[in-house]
Automatic annotation (TrEMBL):
CDD domains in UniProt: BCAT_beta_family
Catalytic activity: L-leucine + 2-oxoglutarate = 4-methyl-2-oxopentanoate + L-glutamate; L-valine + 2-oxoglutarate = 3-methyl-2-oxobutanoate + L-glutamate; L-isoleucine + 2-oxoglutarate = (S)-3-methyl-2-oxopentanoate + L-glutamate
Species whose genome carries this gene: Kordiimonas pumila
NCBIfam families per the UniProt record, alphabetical: ilvE_II, PRK13357.1
Keyword Amino-acid biosynthesis: yes
Stated name of the protein: Probable branched-chain-amino-acid aminotransferase
Amino acid sequence: MSITVNPIPENERGSCPKELAFGAAFADHMFTQLYDDGLGWHDAVIGRFHDLKLSPAAAVLHYGQEIFEGMKAYRRPDGKVSFFRPDANIKRFNRSAARMVMPEVDEAVHLEALEKLISLDQKWVPSEPGSSLYIRPTMIATSPKLGLGAAKAYMHFIITSPVGPYFKEGLNPVSVYISDKYRRAVVGGVGEAKTGGNYAASLLVSEDVASKGYTQVLWLDAVEGRYAEEVGAMNVCFVYGGERVVTPSLSGSILPGITRDSVLKLAPHIGFEVEEARLDVNTILADIKAGKITEVFGCGTAAVISPIGRLCFKGEDYIINDNKAGPVAKKLYDSLTGIQYGTAEDPFNWVHVID
Ligand SMILES: *Cc1c(COP(=O)(O)O)cnc(C)c1O
């Protein structure tokens, strides 16, 4: 199957805004392809960014049969544009699809769609330090039917949005509330899939912690309410003694982040030990108090590395590294973004430059 490319006329194209709010402006083009049972994927097109036409009975609107991905295109010093580990996003998209009983997308077609779309909208990839073109591949169930069951028709689309640096003045630590009340995901549920419902379910707790003066929530496991899982929509790492990076092992209810995986591979390369473990919140807090844990940070595509300066549990605050970004977070941030932006060597062959 080939992708039809219908570029819009040059004089109808927009331009990248100077001030970039996250996910608020969209590039000129988008990719779409359709799936019907019996027919498979068809009508793969790159064309003008447009509103979708859907039946109000479309399954996605009622039962949330939906998945998405989040990745970025980076401007390199030589002006070329690249992806970071796109194969990992493409594979995770299909794992999410399988969990939500949605059809998988051919990996080669998905990559070709990404390459052709971003190549066409090259000028939307900003070049200011720390900025990038955020890419959102999505799949929705479009069958118009209210009966519960997997849909028979789907749409896969990709839209892109230029984003500025997450941290404008260096790495700024965030304050995180450890929720004793709300849970994100349960083993056997859909926490491992990037599916919309997980995020809808987290909105209430986001409002709750914001009203308490915190910007993110740290999720504990849903069975015992005891083991650290994730921070907001990021994975979480704890640094012991300034040299050992420990992250919760993938429990079945943790989203397997590509940034998390990259930290686990990159950290030993730049002189840190790594470990995946089950982390009891009481141990974590005691180790912060005792000074054994020297840094805590979240990791994900949007922020890359997000230092955590303050954790609150049951009304008590725990300050980490004087509420400042620590050396391990900084070094990981610099090393990872160096690879992503093409200013540092790429020892793991993670970078995929678009021709
Ligand atoms: C996307 C996401 C992450 C981070 O994954 P990356 O591949 O590193 O961007 C972590 N947790 C949740 C819940 C997520 O949705």
